[in-house]
Design goal:
The protein has about 70 residues and is mostly helical. It has one domain. Helices cover about 70% and strands about 0% of the residues. Helix 1 packs parallel to helix 3. The longest helix has 29 residues. The two termini are about 35 Å apart.
């Protein structure tokens, strides 16, 4: 199960070094990757909102829709 999850997160086959890990270690790695991606997505969303402060208020709604925020 962890290998399938890791493979999906990595976007390809799991490297040989990772295959050698125990199942619980693979699960820990998978959890760490998932958490890192969530933190990254949150940071990007916050940066996008912060950047909107430099856009005139009347255009912010339109800019949000265009950039997908």
């Amino acid at each position: 199960m962890a290998e399938r999850t890791l493979s999906g997160q990595l976007g390809g086959p799991v490297p040989a070094g990772i295959e050698a890990l125990a199942d619980h270690e693979k699960q820990d790695l998978s959890d760490a990757l998932r958490d890192a991606r969530h933190r990254q997505a949150k940071a990007l969303a916050e940066a996008g909102e912060e950047g909107l402060k430099y856009v005139p208020a009347l255009l912010r709604g339109t800019v949000r829709r265009v950039v997908g925020l």
